Amino acid sequence: MNEKELLKHNALLVDRKIVYQLKTNKKMVKNDDCIFDYSKKQISKDLLNLTYKSGQYSRFLLDKKLPENAFENLYKAWIEKSLSKEIADKVFVAQINHIVIGFATLKIKDGKGQIGLIAVSEQAQGQKIGSKLIDACILYLQEKSINKLIVHTQLANTQACGFYENYGFKKELITNIYHFWI
What we know:
By secondary structure, the protein is α+β, with helices and mostly antiparallel strands. The protein is built from six helices and seven strands.
């Protein structure tokens, strides 16, 4: 459907999703000392708060026609299923003094690594924590002989887009996402 047809059918443009891809062939060294594989089954309060932060531009938060708490329920289930390894192979966290200040979920699918969720706390912004989390993902992928890493974000999340582009990710695809409300 073209834009006119979509609007005619009460379609609401709720997201412009962008996919970034990175070749993981850059030489990596051992992980930073503050990056760990999160092995607990229970979600810490810090990790849950960062999970919600990772979705601050999500259509599930921004579309006000969705039921109350839909966003929180979805993102909590996302991190729970990531920790149980249902939808992620790894959950990396950045910790300082036992406080989670950043995290990334990683899944290997179709011969590529895919970051599902990633966020860094406000206080830790600008300290290269996001880059260290990406480095941990790349190192893990290299151990598995995987040479591509992809991540999806919202085009409106200019901070994330700038971060990925500065890291070396290349734009692959932009998709408009619509919700239909009857």
